Amino acid sequence: MKRKFLVLGVMLSCLLSLSACGAESQSDASSNSKYPVGFFNQTAIENYAHAVEDNYFENWYLDGVTPENFEDELYVSLAMDIDKDEAQQAYYLRGVDESQYLVYKSGYTSWYKALKELGYGDSKSLADNLSISDVSYSFDKDGKLVVDATIQGTKHSAIMKIYLNNEFEPTDIGVTINKTTGERLENAGLNTLLGMGMAFAILIIISLIISLFPIFFGGKKKKKESDKEITKKAMDNTINQIAEQEGLSGDAELVAVIAAAIAAYEGSASTDGFQVRSIRKVSKNWKR
Question: Which residue of 43, 68, 125, 250 is most buried, as measured by CB atoms within 10 A?
Fold first, then answer.
């Protein structure tokens, strides 16, 4: 019902100022035949933008409407087409159309979220602190009328973009805050730091999970052998191979090889510190 009153009010404002509309029709001539210049001109479009921001969004806000309770407060008036029979004092539901309800809900939610950054004093000064300062319109590539209205607040300004069909009904409404270059760079930097922080946090968590795998899924950890034990095993294997080898010419050569192996095990550069007096083969590994 309210949207019908809004369209009717815009049309009446244009009809009541036919001379102004006629004068502007030359400069505001539409390039799209679906939008008659008699209705879709600068004056009518400005009136519509003011009505949406001043009469709708601001009044809804002052009435306590929020994005959360929007359906409870405005679904009936925006989505249901109700007629009143004055004679019988009865109401009749002619139909339900949620398209306009959804458009206004989306637009009001966008305006509501931008309100804090726009800035205003308090509820009493809301109408004075928020105002439409500039309205322009154009046609997009699909031939749809696009209205750009600047909302001026105490802190920032914003662009309210309205897409209109040729029945003067909005198909989409959105509000975007105009921010300075410094504010945009600050937001970009914060987003970058937040993204990097999340990435590093995830990598740390993955690293911790991987480090816990041996505890939960691994068996008993094999004891690591010391360098001395490895050297001793290698020397034992060498001595056994030498003792079993048949190609040596005599005991003197065998003694020299074994002495060199013992010196390597002891970490000595020569065999002067000991003498090999006898060699015999045993059934178990050789030990010092």
Answer: 43
